């Protein structure tokens, strides 16, 4: 099928004032310029859809939630059967759910992302899993549109449309910029709040380290504490404060990139130390509840903790489902020493589990390999 491209001349025509007789300065955003183009794309053919997904009953008592990230649409989909074998009640896709920037040729239509979604939807292993297990999703850079991209990505609203269509996002999510959302499930005394943050749509640009002959082994970004820099954007920060004030017994807060660790300078909240502190401080103000952080992105997995304001906060990083960058656990662990990490760093295929013991008021976070063998596990109370 022939692809429609929006030319520079067409963009200029869209931006031109209505009357040449009364010229005036008009500020036009890329979103406004491209809106007619995207409306035309919507009518050309149906956008990819992940398929029907069961609804998690609002009254369900959650005891097991699974989590995963970094799933390449062109790689083996064998991990879906492994996750299903754990019998989770809910699965959280927390970023790089497809790799849509691979092969992107800078077209405004993000055709490579659209193709990636379509291919993922065609896999029977994925559709079988999705038809049986309720799912929630947020994104990371490779399904946002461009490696390490943030709020300055000019085609982010079209990327948002593709995401929301594919995952069947709620009307509340569709009604506002960004894809953040929150749900509360379970009866009083056993309420689980899942907060899915959007760390892409509003995020400020990263501060790059100066060029050196030897590329830094643990990332090329520098911490940027500038007060105008943001990860979530003010609207999402205000929303998050409101969500944390709601009654819940256990809160699961999902960030596509790591929160606790400061041991590397790849992407993560470590790039914005003031924002990281702001998040940890805000979590401390939550209505009384247990708390677990979940993250992905790293193509390696681990369990982390930090003591902040008199509270120990735990984070489970699970990555990746089917795009592991190695299999040498000892080497990966030694390459990235980290005082905040509890145990080893696992660069092999994995998924995560959050098990809730309501009687003991305890949570167990676990990492499972590609045969569902346990890699690491940690139990903590609240």
In short:
The protein has 382 residues and is of the alpha/beta class. The protein is 26% helix and 19% strand.
Give an account of the 3D structure.
The protein is α/β, with parallel strands linked by helices and 382 residues long. The chain is 26% helix and 19% strand. The protein has 11 helices and 14 strands. The strands form 3 sheets. Strands 3-2-1-12-13-14 form a 6-stranded mixed sheet, with no helix packed on it. It has a 6-stranded mixed sheet with strand order 4-5-8-9-11-10. Helix 3 links the parallel strand 1 (64-68) and strand 2 (90-93). The longest helix is centred in the first third of the chain and has 15 residues, at 30-44. Residues 1-20 have low confidence and may be disordered.
Q: How do the strands and helices of this protein lay out in sequence?
A:
Blueprint lengths: L7 H8 L14 H15 L19 E5 L10 H7 L4 E4 L17 H11 L2 H9 L2 E3 L3 H4 L11 H12 L3 H4 L6 E5 L6 E5 L10 E2 L12 E2 L11 H11 L5 E5 L18 H12 L5 E6 L6 E7 L2 E7 L11 H7 L15 E7 L4 E7 L5 E8 L1
Parallel strand pairs: 1-2, 2-3, 5-8, 8-9, 9-11
Antiparallel strand pairs: 1-12, 4-5, 6-7, 10-11, 12-13, 13-14
Helix amount, in percent?
25-40%
User: What average pLDDT do the residues reach?
Assistant: 93
Main beta sheet, described?
6 strands, mixed
Question: Low-confidence segments, ≥5 residues, pLDDT <50?
Answer: 1-20
Briefly note the structural class of the backbone: alpha/beta
Number of helices: 11
Radius of gyration: 21 Å
**What is the spatial order of strands in the main beta sheet?**
3-2-1-12-13-14
List how many beta strands DSSP finds. Answer: 14
For the record, give the distance between the C-alpha atoms at the N and C termini, rounded to a whole number.
56 Å
The best one-word shape is: globular
Strand content: 15-25%
Order of H and E elements:
HHEHEHHEHHHEEEEHEHEEEHEEE
User: Multimeric state of these chains?
Assistant: single chain
């Amino acid at each position: 099928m022939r692809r429609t491209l929006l030319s520079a001349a067409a963009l200029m025509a869209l931006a031109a004032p209505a009357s040449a007789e009364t010229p005036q300065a008009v500020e036009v955003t890329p979103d406004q310029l491209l809106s007619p183009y995207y409306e035309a794309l919507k009518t050309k053919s149906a956008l990819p859809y992940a398929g029907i997904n069961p609804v998690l009953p609002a009254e369900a008592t959650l005891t097991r939630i699974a989590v995963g990230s970094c799933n390449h649409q062109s790689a083996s989909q064998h991990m879906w059967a492994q996750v299903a074998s754990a019998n989770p009640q809910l699965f959280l896709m927390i970023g790089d759910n497809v790799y849509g920037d691979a092969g992107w040729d800078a077209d405004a239509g993000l055709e490579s992302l659209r193709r990636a979604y379509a291919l993922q939807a065609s896999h029977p292993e994925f559709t079988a899993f999705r038809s049986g297990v309720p799912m929630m999703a947020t994104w990371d850079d490779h399904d946002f549109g461009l490696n390490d991209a943030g709020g300055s990505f000019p085609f982010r609203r079209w990327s948002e449309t593709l995401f929301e269509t594919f995952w069947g996002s709620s009307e509340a999510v569709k009604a506002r910029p960004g894809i953040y959302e929150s749900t509360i499930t379970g009866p009083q005394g056993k309420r689980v709040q899942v907060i899915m943050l959007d760390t892409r749509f509003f995020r400020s640009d990263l501060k790059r380290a100066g060029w050196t002959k030897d590329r830094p082994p643990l990332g090329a970004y520098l911490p940027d504490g500038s007060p105008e820099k943001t990860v979530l954007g003010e609207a999402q920060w205000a929303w998050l404060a409101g969500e944390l004030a709601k009654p819940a017994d256990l809160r699961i807060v999902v960030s596509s990139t790591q929160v606790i660790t400061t041991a590397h300078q790849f992407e993560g909240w470590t790039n914005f130390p003031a924002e990281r502190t702001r998040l940890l401080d805000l979590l401390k103000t939550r209505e009384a509840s247990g708390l677990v952080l979940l993250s992905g992105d790293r193509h390696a997995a681990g369990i982390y903790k930090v003591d902040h304001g008199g509270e120990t906060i735990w984070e489970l990083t699970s990555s990746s489902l089917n795009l592991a960058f190695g299999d040498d656990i000892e080497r990966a662990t030694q390459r990235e020493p980290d005082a905040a990490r509890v145990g080893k760093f696992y660069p092999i295929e994995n998924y995560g589990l959050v098990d809730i013991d309501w009687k003991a008021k305890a949570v167990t976070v676990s990492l499972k390999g590609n045969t569902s063998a346990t890699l690491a596990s940690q139990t903590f109370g609240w």
